[in-house]
Amino acid sequence: MSSTIYNVGVWDKDRDYKPHDIVRVHNYTSMPNGSFYYAKKHIANCPTCVPEHAANNWWSGYAQDQLNWWYPHFTWVASYDSSVDLQPRVRVVKYGNKVVEQRLKDGLNSDLISLSLKFDKRGIDEATAISHFLHKRGGAEPFIFNAPAPFNLPPPPSIGDNDLSGRKDRRLFLCKNWTCTYNFQNNYTISATFSEIANYYNKGAKL
């Protein structure tokens, strides 16, 4: 539908959409600039396939964390040549003329992960959708991302009457830098660094 990340049309119930098409839905109360959604599959002649935050078979864009707060949800699957960087923060205390030292974890979230992800050989529609998602976050807005195994976390424990056992990994990440490489016609590679940030779910979590 759109081959640019800067001009996204408003959802039209009378239009057909193909995978990775981007639409904007106005919500003047909570999001005056509109919410953005990404088509999961071909949508034809379906005026009831309304883009919305709630999970559905047609659109992605948002998901709830363990406290039921809505966040943008990055759903594209990275290529196999991605990597995970782990650099736990450690506090070192030295004793006795620095002969003996003690190493301690530095804080509750000392083992946050950083993901170097590649989305290789993607068509223009998928590359546009990924680039648009990251552009709208602007390097400052966190988003939900399901980390790949074996670095995915189990579902969180239930909180009160809220059963969260069916939820996937709901950690939050920031993407402050990414590149989009034009390989050849209709073939792009996006490289991005997703840095985990501390939130309620990973507070005190152990990988």
Plain-language structure description:
With 207 residues, this protein is mostly beta strands. The protein has 2 domains: 7-60, no CATH class; 62-197. The protein is 7% helix and 38% strand. It is built from 1 helix and 12 strands. It has one helix at residues 124-137, and strands at residues 22-27, 31-39, 59-60, 62-64, 70-74, 83-86, 90-95, 100-105, 113-122, 143-145, 172-184, 187-197. The strands form 3 sheets. The protein has a 7-stranded mixed β-sheet, with helices on one face. It is elongated and about 75 Å long. It starts with 21 loop residues before the first strand and ends in a 10-residue tail after the last strand.
> H/E order of the elements?
EEEEEEEEEHEEE
Return the average pLDDT rounded to an integer.
82
| Global morphology | elongated
- For the termini, the CA-CA separation is 40 Å
| Low-confidence region ranges | 203-207
Strand order of the largest sheet: 4-5-10-11-12-9-6
Q: How much helical structure, as a percent, in the residues?
A: under 10%
Strand content: 35-45%
Radius of gyration, rounded? 20 Å
Number of contiguous helices: 1
Count of individual beta strands: 12
The biggest beta sheet is recorded as: 7 strands, mixed
